[in-house]
């Protein structure tokens, strides 16, 4: 968890820097971005080679440690299902709100008195995400 807390701001800053660099439309910025991408690909290749050359003794020791500690490894399927439920419902709600929201705005531009009805439809579309959250809470509670 600590790794994500450290890496997330760094990723946001890098994404913002890339956005600013690509807006300038200079060839130097694109070369820098391609250089970083190439370095990342080389690093991934090194990790792949190291992982493929690992000895079976290391893997067996890691497996033995994992089976003796048993730190919540039995409920991974429920946690994965909860994550999929939240992600799927949020994506579905985003698509539904995008389509109903644009239709509601078009309707309100023609007939402003339909504001209440239009917002109810958008709220119903947002309820999809709440259903996914409820399913995730139930799955995590049973894990």
Structure description:
The protein is an all-alpha fold and 143 residues long. The protein contains five helices and no strands. Helix 4 (76-110) runs antiparallel to helix 5 (115-142).
The overall average pLDDT, rounded, is 78
N-C termini distance: 20 Å
Unreliable spans: none
The total beta strand count reads: 0
* SSE-based structural type: mainly alpha
Shape: flat
**C-alpha Rg (nearest Å):** 24 Å
Most strands sheet: none
Give the fraction of residues assigned to helices.
over 70%
Approximately what portion of the residues adopt beta-strand conformation?
Answer: under 5%
The string of secondary-structure elements, in order, is: HHHHH
Number of helices: 5
Task: Summarize the entry for a quick read.
With 143 residues, this protein is mostly helical. The protein has five helices and no strands. The longest helix is centred in the middle third of the chain and has 35 residues, at 76-110.
Note the main attributes of this structure.
mainly alpha; 87% helix; single chain; 143 residues
Outline the secondary-structure elements.
Layout: H1 2-23, H2 27-52, H3 56-69, H4 76-110, H5 115-142
Helix pairs in contact: 4-5
């Amino acid at each position: 968890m600590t790794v994500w807390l450290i890496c997330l701001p760094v990723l946001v800053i890098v994404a913002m820097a890339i956005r600013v660099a690509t807006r300038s439309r200079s060839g130097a910025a694109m070369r820098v971005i391609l250089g970083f991408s190439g370095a990342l690909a080389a690093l991934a290749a090194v990790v792949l080679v190291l992982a493929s050359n690992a000895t079976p003794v290391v893997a067996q020791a890691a497996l033995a440690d994992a089976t003796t500690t048993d730190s919540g490894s039995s409920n991974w399927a429920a946690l994965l299902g909860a994550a999929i439920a939240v992600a799927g419902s949020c994506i579905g709600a985003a698509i539904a709100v995008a389509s109903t929201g644009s239709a509601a705005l078009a309707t309100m531009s023609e007939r402003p008195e339909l504001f209440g009805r239009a917002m109810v439809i958008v709220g119903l579309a947002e309820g999809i995400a709440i259903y996914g959250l409820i399913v995730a809470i139930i799955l995590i509670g049973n894990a």
